[in-house]
Amino acid sequence: MMETVEQESSGEGQGIMEVNAEYLQQLRDLDIPEEEAKKALFLTGNISVEEAAIFYFDGLENQNAEAEDEHSFYKMVFVVNMELSMGVGKIAAQVGHAAVGLYQLLFKESKTREIAYRWDEHGAKKVVLQGSNAAHLMDLQALAISLNLPTYLVQDAGRTQIAPGSYTVLSIMGQEENVNKVTGKLKLLN
């Protein structure tokens, strides 16, 4: 037996969808709200109760994951090696290298690409901080890696103000609370 239900279609006014009444009742017995059960049956082509239930419960899981992500903010931080005598323009260029380098690194693998998307969705927050020296940057990088945070350490070519091979800026990206575990006590660059 089929039950006919009026359903709004995208911009086309009202459409008609038919759902299997027996399947609908079985989904209702699983405590799935009636409208959601009808929608799941319609969108799965009334194939089976199992398909509609899977569709419904997968949708709930995705909503829960999205709700969690709404409360997880992402940021990219740049830790500048303050031991080096870099002018403001040089620091800006090195931070630019760190940003682009980390962003490119994130897009090389699908598991880290998602971090870049989430960061961008949440406003692409960026913070520039002070690091003591190259050893400090490398210690911070090791800690970030231990927390599975993507990093990029800029090594200068030495064409202008500083010696070739100098470590200038470390960039780190991830969920704000995790990044703060690495850089939360550092001072802002001013």
UniProtKB/TrEMBL annotation:
**Per the record, GO CC terms?**
cytosol
Question: Which GO terms label this protein's molecular function in UniProt?
Answer: peptidyl-tRNA hydrolase activity
Pfam families of this UniProt entry?
PTH2 (PF01981), UBA_7 (PF22562)
Per the record, what are the reactions this protein catalyses?
an N-acyl-L-alpha-aminoacyl-tRNA + H2O = an N-acyl-L-amino acid + a tRNA + H(+)
What InterPro entries would the database entry show? Answer: Pep_tRNA_hydro_II_dom_sf, PTH2, UBA, UBA-like_sf
Keywords from the UniProt entry: Hydrolase
Task: Say if the entry is tagged with keyword Hydrolase.
Answer: yes
Give the Enzyme Commission number. 3.1.1.29
NCBIfam families from the entry? Answer: arch_pth2
Give the family per the record: Belongs to the PTH2 family.
Its name, as the record gives it, is peptidyl-tRNA hydrolase
Query: Which source organism does the UniProt entry give?
Result: Hymenochirus boettgeri (Congo dwarf clawed frog)
